[in-house]
Design a protein that fits this description.
Length: about 220
């Protein structure tokens, strides 16, 4: 079952809510923005509202219907809204210093797939692209050599994949309790090297789940 869904485009026709809640840097005003009839984010209205100011992401709304919105209420920890990302679509930029978006929910049993469109701007040993628990649970971890990521659930998987830097890729990650977990880059499978035994208990983008370390300089589009 679909547990959560975040994107800068409309993923489900049944979804009628907004895409983003942004904070304007010039006056700290906040406003929610939705989708156009074609399913794309209403970037024109966002640009008009921002003027010359920056937009910071307060909330990335969950389109699954489960209400699991990614939220950041601390101004200094909010990722940047960037108007042009992959295929000229917007993206959320995490600074690798303090930015993160987080939602906590009741444990969801494995197996679970996580799909992610992301770009590593600057690769940093020990940083988290995402984490699925309070700490080191169902995470994607930047580890040597440069550009590589591995699955982590308290211990690193045997195999990593080079997602590179400054290029968007589609990552598919399967976490399960028996057999091999895996990660896919643009549809190509690499076995993770060990079975996963933890449940999904939240989602953190751009940092370790407890928010105290592992901040990554990463762009996310969905």
């Amino acid at each position: 079952n679909l547990q959560a869904a975040y994107s800068v485009r409309k993923l489900r026709s049944a979804y009628t809510g907004n895409a983003l809640l942004l904070r304007r840097s010039s006056d700290n005003a906040e406003l929610a923005f939705g989708f156009l009839a074609n399913g794309n984010l209403d970037t024109g209205t966002i640009a008009t509202w921002l003027g010359g100011a920056s937009g910071l992401v307060t909330t990335w709304y969950d389109q699954s219907g489960n209400g699991r919105n990614l939220v950041q209420t601390t101004a200094n920890n909010q990722p940047l809204y960037v108007a042009s990302g992959p295929n000229s679509n917007p993206t959320m930029r995490f600074d690798g210093v303090s930015d993160r978006l987080r939602v906590t929910f009741s444990s969801v049993a494995l197996p679970q797939h996580i799909f992610c469109v992301f770009k590593q701007i600057v690769w940093s040993e020990g940083a988290y692209v995402f984490d699925g628990g309070n700490t080191i649970n169902m995470g994607l971890y930047q580890t040597s050599p440069s550009g590589f990521v591995k699955l982590i659930t308290g211990a690193l998987s045997d195999n990593g994949v080079n997602f590179g830097t400054l290029v968007y890729n589609v990552g598919t990650f399967l976490f399960r309790t028996t057999g091999q977990s895996y990660l896919r880059k643009n549809g190509v499978t690499t076995l993770g090297g060990f079975p996963q035994g933890n449940a999904l208990s939240g989602i953190t983008l751009g940092a370790r789940g407890d928010g105290t370390a592992g901040f990554s300089n990463t762009d996310f589009s969905e």
